[in-house]
UniProtKB/TrEMBL annotation:
An individual GO BP term: L-arabinose metabolic process
Name of the protein in its database record: non-reducing end alpha-L-arabinofuranosidase
Cell compartment(s), UniProt: Secreted, Extracellular space, Extracellular matrix
Family: Belongs to the glycosyl hydrolase 51 family.
Length: 591
């Protein structure tokens, strides 16, 4: 039927009821009840849900980006993860050969100013003579992030920088995890590489192995330096560097916004390890990378400020930038000294929104995006409300941003759901990690929130306590909470689950919406639960009433939404039945 007829039918059925039966049986409980849900479909009682209500939150945790969404296959590509001092640890790089044939070390001879560490490979053996190199040669290999996923027929771009006083004859290969099976090979021969030289090679895989590795070998005596070794599949989303399957799972959620890049990742345990946007832009070879001390691993920052903005654009989601406000978990800058941080963030806003001929807009344009990004939201810090310098620092940022960009909505870390904030803000942040039952029972938390003033941004929610690796119990608790979010969407502007991703090899936080390894991914029940709410953005909330006993184990909502594919309008009813003894079901009806 066409959309106008659908709407007409809804208006004719101004008030209707749905009868639901549920049964609970456990020790001491024997209940069989009928429940009535009344939905008022009149326009007078309806209310539009914000277009921005449900989105996603990306944090670099659990190797969500490095070794995950960001498709770079080489781990520690610049040999910097051991620090800027040499000799340094080069893991997961490993040596091919023994001490009699090759010596591998690091020095500070790189041509890149902000990441000076380079890999020095001294080949002691030769193609002939007393010390002949073993078959295939000696050198180094990189297994990626717990294995590189190499797929037959696909092409991969290998880039590395090399230097040697002698001519080079390098064997480059993608192999199985033990180095025996060759999936792709080529040879790099050069006579004059006394200065750092960029090498670009395209490799086409002749086999498949999710636990592959990259090898660089030589059979010629001499010293070879390597730096900035990158291997990327050519089939990333739109060529923008995002792993296709993981990106697809995000896009399927139809997120209205993308909050990035953290989280605690933004703060760091110490300010020296906080996310610095200026160190994550420009050519990837020149980015120094940094150690994320909160989640305890190195990131080369290939997924940087520009890429996050590009990710939001590719998802057709609004970017929400969370920036450091001079505060970490263990140290902070007092308000009298915070001005450099403020100026840095103003530069970051110009990078995102400035004209292509402005100072930082010019940098963005040089990276391939002359048009400004649609950045409308920023958050000043993360979970910093009660720290000594937060309010003073916040006001410095707030005033400067509003003066330069009065249209940008600014998010405070302080909870305004119970009482009014004592400082200006457009939104306030609200985080909730708890049990499934507490989450469900907090569906009405915002019923008493102030109906005027800043709106809520529930930027991190999860039934974390009893979710394990992800289960239906948690999803049902979260669904009940989100039904409450829908009902209070007059005072709630945004909501997002956390965390978003986890690599199975670095499960530092559980549960996570999407779980993956080098070649596979799946969504936990909490991920699929979010699919039930993805049509709510911009939908119409209908007034609904449940008649149930006990009513506190049931919650329901009703919306009408327009399908842009078939241009029809649909009625969707969600009913969440949550009992403390047994969980029955989350039922969704689409009419």
């Amino acid at each position: 039927m066409d959309s106008s007829r659908t709407r007409c039918c809804i208006l004719l059925l101004v008030l209707f009821g749905i009868s639901i039966q549920y049964q609970c049986s456990a020790s001491g409980i024997d209940t069989n009840q009928a429940v009535l849900l009344f939905v008022n479909a009149s326009e007078a009682s309806a209310r539009k849900i914000p277009d921005t209500l449900f989105g996603i939150f990306f944090e670099e945790i659990n190797h969500a980006g490095a070794g995950g969404l960001w498709a770079e296959l080489v781990s520690n590509r610049g040999f910097e993860s051991g620090g800027s001092f040499v000799p340094s640890i080069i893991e997961p790089w490993a040596i091919i050969g023994d001490d009699s044939s090759v010596i591998v070390s690091t020095d500070l001879s790189s041509c890149f100013v902000r990441n000076k560490v380079a890999l020095r490979v001294q080949v002691l053996c030769d193609i002939e003579g007393a010390n002949i190199c073993p078959g295939g040669g000696v050198g180094v290999y990189n297994p990626g992030f717990w294995g590189m996923n190499i797929e037959q027929g696909k092409r991969y771009k290998l880039v590395f920088y090399v230097r040697s006083e002698e001519s080079i004859n390098l064997s480059v290969a993608l192999t199985g995890s033990n180095g025996l099976k060759k999936l792709a090979t080529t040879t790099v021969v050069a006579a004059n590489v006394s200065n750092w030289t960029k090498v670009l090679v395209l490799l086409e895989a002749e086999g498949t192995d999710p636990n592959s590795r990259l090898e660089l070998r030589s059979t010629t005596k001499g010293v070879i330096w390597f730096d900035q070794v990158s291997l990327m599949p050519l089939d990333t989303y739109n060529g923008n560097g995002f792993r296709n399957d993981l990106f697809g799972m995000l896009k399927d959620l139809k997120p209205a916004f993308l909050r990035f890049p953290g989280g605690c990742f933004v703060e760091g345990d110490y300010l020296r390890n906080a996310f610095r946007w200026k160190e994550t832009i420009g050519p990837w070879e020149e980015r120094p990378g940094h150690y994320g001390d909160k989640w305890k691993y190195w990131t080369d920052d290939g997924l940087g400020h520009f890429e996050f903005l590009q990710l939001a654009e590719d998802l057709r989601a609004l970017p929400v930038w969370v920036f450091n406000n001079g505060i970490s978990h263990n140290d902070q800058v007092d308000t009298s000294s915070v001005l450099p941080f403020v100026e840095d963030i103003l530069d970051g806003l110009e990078f995102a929104r400035g004209a292509p001929n402005s100072r930082w807009g010019l940098v963005r344009a040089a990276m391939g995006h002359p048009e400004p990004f649609d950045l409308r939201y920023v958050a000043i810090g993360n979970e910093d409300c009660n720290k000594p310098y937060y309010l003073g620092n916040y006001l410095k940022f707030y005033s400067a941003i509003k003066e330069a960009y009065p249209d940008i909505k600014i998010i405070s870390n302080c909870d305004g759901s119970s009482k009014a904030l004592d400082h200006p803000a457009d939104l306030y942040d609200f985080h909730i990690y708890t049990s499934a039952s507490y989450m469900f029972n907090n569906a009405n938390h915002f019923d008493g929130a102030p109906r005027s003033g800043p709106k809520a941004f529930i930027s991190e929610y999860a039934a974390h306590d009893d979710a394990g690796n992800g289960n239906l119990l948690a999803a049902l608790g979260e669904a009940g909470f989100l039904i409450g979010v829908e009902k209070n969407s007059d005072v709630i502007e945004m909501a997002s689950y956390a965390p978003l991703f986890s690599n199975t090899n670095d499960w530092g936080w559980k549960a996570d919406a999407i779980v993956f390894d080098s070649s596979q991914a799946y969504g936990i029940p909490s991920y699929w639960m979010q699919h039930l709410f993805k049509e709510s953005n911009g939908a119409t909330l209908l007034n609904s009433t449940l008649q149930a006993n006990p009513s506190n184990s049931l919650i329901a909502s009703a919306i009408t939404w327009r399908n842009e594919t078939d241009k029809n309008e649909y009625l969707r009813i969600k009913v969440d039945i949550f009992l403390t003894v047994i969980i029955s079901a989350l039922k969704t009806y689409t009419i």
